[in-house]
Design brief:
Single_hybrid_motif, transferase, elongated, Dihydrolipoamide Transferase, Dihydrolipoyllysine-residue succinyltransferase component of 2-oxoglutarate dehydrogenase complex, lipoyl, acyltransferase, 13 helices
């Protein structure tokens, strides 16, 4: 039985499209909803999924052809009987599949909103390994979080399609398993590597027709555009980005590295930055380039907070099942100050100032792979116990690399505690698009003049970095003074003073 693959509805007023890329060839095995080809209209790029499982038959519309709505693109022979030469060339795989069960695809899981690709960082299993259902197969790294990929079923790894270091798109196929416990893969080691090698060397990819037309119209060459399509193919939107990008974006490139002595070079180790580290670096530099960032400092006497904590920590732990730390005091103090100085909790959107009538508190946390900022939503409506529980739970998930995208988005203000590492003084960098970040530091006994006498007090330096475009110096200083007052006399928090 044959199934037709036709051009889907392209949208209002769009009557035709150009076939940009075919991901499958005649004879290839395809699954339901697996991407067959990509069409490009004058407005959007449209992916065409397979309407049925089977084998690719004839491709009617080749790459570069213009097709109308509902036009025939290709045919699919349903079932496995129409297998072309490709499956026949893999007798060992076919035998393993027929003996032990059906082939199961291991796909890239949902990566989260706005995340379109990931890097395969580690494979825990090899071809031929037997795995149990939900056993971890590999780990992916996005520009924000690490994602573990569990086995969708019990069986044997028969083929690994994406090797360590490969960049894969959302919903891409990572590996193939054979269900059952006795399957043994006998694929030659060279086979999986052959395809990526060909793709890497075959830089002769044809750019999308609409992209070439637009480049000709705008008078720019292909080497001025970064392609986002398959194998680096330049798409129409890539050309538009290159045309509309501000001139400043292309100006300052990183200075070339100074020459290194041969003896020193032999003792160096060069390691590629992780995607998370690259994103951290980019965001922090963007923050410096965008915001008019300034930092104001103060110091707080921690005597009263420490006394209150010591007095109630055992009772607090017994009742709430979580330790009473300093972060809940600082969170409460910041919420208190943000109510009085709302611009520190606001953000700039073009020529508008967006004031937030809520506080989603970002709590910066160090992890083995880099700094992440999980967000405690509606912290202004939470109790001390709720805040401590949320911080403990988010911190544990951050260290395990299990934070979701949603848990790190939407923050309105951030607290960063460098004191846990021994920092005495620092200037934190804003977390865009936020306008303020509080830096906590080490508690250190210092001699202080109190009522005409020198006494030893546990002191902490506080630093507030803020965006001077929206927050004036008076507001920033007042905010920090209110935080100081609330911590030096915690009863003010209860009285809302």
């Amino acid at each position: 039985m044959s199934t037709e693959v036709r051009v889907p509805t392209l949208g209002e007023s769009v009557t035709e499209a150009t076939v940009a890329t075919w991901f499958k060839n005649p004879g290839d095995r395809v699954e339901v909803d697996e991407m067959l080809c990509e069409l490009e209209t004058d407005k959007v790029t449209v992916e065409v999924p397979s309407p049925a499982a089977g084998t690719m038959g004839e491709i009617v519309a080749a790459e570069g052809e213009t097709v109308g709505v509902d036009a025939l693109l290709a045919t699919i022979s349903e079932g496995g009987e129409a297998a072309a030469p490709a499956p026949a060339a893999k007798p060992a795989e076919a035998a393993a599949s027929s003996d032990t069960g059906e082939a199961i695809d291991v796909m890239v899981p949902t990566l989260g909103e706005s995340v379109t690709e990931a890097t395969v960082s580690t494979w825990f299993k090899q071809v031929g390994d037997t795995v149990a259902q939900d056993e971890m197969l590999c780990e992916l790294e996005t520009d924000k979080v690490s994602v573990e990929v569990p086995a969708p079923a019990a069986g044997t790894i028969t083929e690994i399609l994406a090797k360590e270091g490969d960049t894969v798109e959302a919903s891409a196929k990572l590996a193939i398993m054979t269900s059952g416990s006795g399957a043994v893969a006998t694929k030659p080691a060279a086979a999986p590597a052959a395809a990526p090698a060909a793709a890497a060397t075959g830089k002769d990819v044809e750019d999308a027709p609409a992209a070439k037309k637009l480049m000709a119209e705008k008078g720019i060459s292909a080497d001025q555009v970064t392609g986002s399509g398959r194998d680096g193919r330049i798409m129409k939107e890539d050309v538009l980005k290159a045309v509309t990008a501000p001139a400043a974006a292309a100006a300052p490139a990183a200075a070339p590295r100074a020459p290194v002595h041969a003896d020193d070079a032999a003792r160096e180790e060069r390691v590629k930055m992780t995607r998370l580290r690259q994103t951290i670096a980019k965001r922090l530099k963007d923050s410096q380039n965008t915001a008019a960032m300034l930092t104001t400092y103060n110091e707080v006497d921690m005597t009263e907070v420490m006394a209150l904590r010591n007095e109630y920590k055992d009772l607090f732990l017994k009742k709430h099942g979580v330790k009473l730390g300093f972060m809940s005091f600082f969170t409460k103090a910041c919420v208190h100050a943000l109510k009085e100085i709302p611009e520190v909790n606001a953000e700039i959107d073009g020529t508008d100032v967006v004031y937030k009538n809520f506080v989603h508190m970002g709590i910066a946390a160090g992890t083995p792979t880099g700094l992440v900022v999980p967000v405690i939503r509606d912290a202004d409506a939470m109790s001390f116990a709720d805040i401590e529980k949320a911080i403990a739970e988010k911190g544990a998930r951050a260290r395990d690399g299990k934070l979701s995208m949603a848990e790190m988005q939407g923050g309105t203000f951030t607290i960063s505690n460098g004191g846990v590492y021994g920092s005495l003084m620092s200037s934190p960098i804003l977390n865009p698009p936020q306008s303020g970040i509080l830096g906590m530091h080490k508690i250190q006994d210092r001699p202080m003049a109190i009522k005409g006498q020198v006494v030893i007090r546990p002191m902490m330096y506080l630093a507030l970095s803020y965006d001077h475009r929206i927050v004036d110096g008076k507001g920033a200083v007042t905010f920090l003074v209110r935080v100081k007052e609330a911590l030096e006399d915690p009863r003010r928090l209860l009285m809302d003073l």
